[in-house]
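Re-run with default settings, no changes from the original entry. Doing this only to confirm the output is reproducible before filing.
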Amino acid sequence: MKTNNEIEHIANDVLTKYVKRGGVFKVFNEIMNAEDIKLREIPSVSTDFVGALTKGNNNQVYIMINKNIDNLGRKNFTIAHELGHYFLRHQLHQNSVFCNSDDIVEEGHQQNAIEREANYFASCFLMPEEKIKPAFLIILENRSRKRIQDFLLVKNDYTFGVWILIRDELTKRYGVSEAALRYRLQQLKLARFEFSKF
């Protein structure tokens, strides 16, 4: 079992090694090629299957993801989650770790320690603190009418409009879903969300 600091350190080491600039999701293929991991998108009739880290009979490592995931941010988070299993050296039981929709949780808490570690890795990997924090704070300061500077409490008022501007820019920049972005900003104590969905 690893601490969040240990997981973030491992994610940052991988980032330092492979990501020179831009969003991590843009270099997934380079990372997998360097680590000799093959990515396979497989059609699955089960909406429960999301992704897997497997090892073939020839010891080839595969990341398999459900081809039917239609949200690009969710797909990127799934790939990063499976890379988390790989870089965190999670034991492959019977040569595979299969993850269902309850395991790969972009927002919220996971009971299974291994899945929680992989989710935290994915969050840190896709949205490293040293990049997302200053980006969030600059947008927040420039977009908020009242010049909010270091924390955004999103309610059903003008702050919701500020959130939409931040969300649209950062989900595109980091290739993540709104749920993953919300969760990361809450982890970093940059935002809290108390708005009701319309």
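Helices lie at 4-18, 28-34, 72-87, 113-126, 129-143, 158-174, 178-187. The mean pLDDT is 88.
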